[in-house]
Design goal:
Collagenase (Catalytic Domain); 4 helices; 177 residues
C-alpha cells in the first residue's frame, strides 16, 4: 500500500512540473546565431536611485546588481528616495520608478535609456516597474542589462531574452571588456 501512495504522489508532482513549464503558442528557439549587442555603454559607474513607491528593496536591488558585478560592471551605490516627486533620472544614475501612462498591460517592466549623441555613452536610465513585478526573479537583472545598454537577445534561458518565460540566468556574451 505504501508503494502505491508513493507512485500516486510521483505522478502528481510530474504532472504539476509539466503544467508549470509548458507555455502554449510560444515559439521556442534552440540556438541563436551571433552574440548579444550592446548599443551604448556607461563612461562611469552609475548610481541607483529607487523610488519608494515601487517597493523595490535595497536588498533586492543589491542582489540584482551583484549579477552584473560578477560580469565586471561597477555601480556607485543604492539609495531609496521617499520623495513624492521621485520621477526624474539624474545624470549618472539608474532610476527605478513606477510606469508612466502608456505602459502596456502585458509588460512586466521597461527601461528608457538616455545617451549622449556624439559619444554614445549612457547619460542616465529609467527603469519602469510595477511593485508586483519587482519581486519576480530576473526582472530587475534584465532591466539593469538594458540600463547598461544591452539589447534583447533571443537565446533560450538568456538573461536578456525578451520573453520572461523563456529567459534564464545565462549571461553569455555580456562580460564587460
Amino acid at each position: 500500500m505504501k508503494w502505491a501512495f508513493c507512485f500516486l504522489l510521483s505522478c502528481m508532482v510530474e504532472h504539476n512540473f509539466f503544467y508549470e513549464s509548458y507555455y502554449i503558442n510560444q515559439h521556442i528557439e534552440t540556438f541563436v546565431i551571433g552574440k548579444p549587442h550592446q548599443k551604448a555603454s556607461c563612461a562611469h559607474p552609475p548610481s541607483v536611485r529607487i523610488c519608494a513607491d515601487t517597493e523595490v528593496s535595497a536588498f533586492r536591488m543589491g542582489h540584482a546588481l551583484q549579477y552584473w558585478k560578477i560580469l565586471g560592471y561597477n555601480f556607485e551605490g543604492i539609495r531609496i528616495d521617499t520623495s513624492p516627486l521621485c520621477m526624474n533620472a539624474r545624470a549618472g544614475e539608474i532610476l527605478v520608478t513606477l510606469p508612466e501612462s502608456g505602459f502596456g498591460g502585458g509588460q512586466m517592466a521597461s527601461t528608457r535609456l538616455y545617451t549622449h549623441i556624439e559619444s554614445n555613452n549612457i547619460v542616465k536610465a529609467k527603469i519602469f516597474i510595477m511593485p508586483k513585478n519587482a519581486k519576480k526573479s530576473r526582472v530587475l537583472e534584465h532591466e539593469i542589462g538594458h540600463a547598461l545598454g544591452w539589447s534583447h537577445y533571443e537565446q533560450k534561458f538568456h538573461i536578456m531574452h525578451s520573453n520572461w518565460m523563456l529567459g534564464g540566468m545565462n549571461s553569455k556574451g555580456l562580460r564587460k571588456n
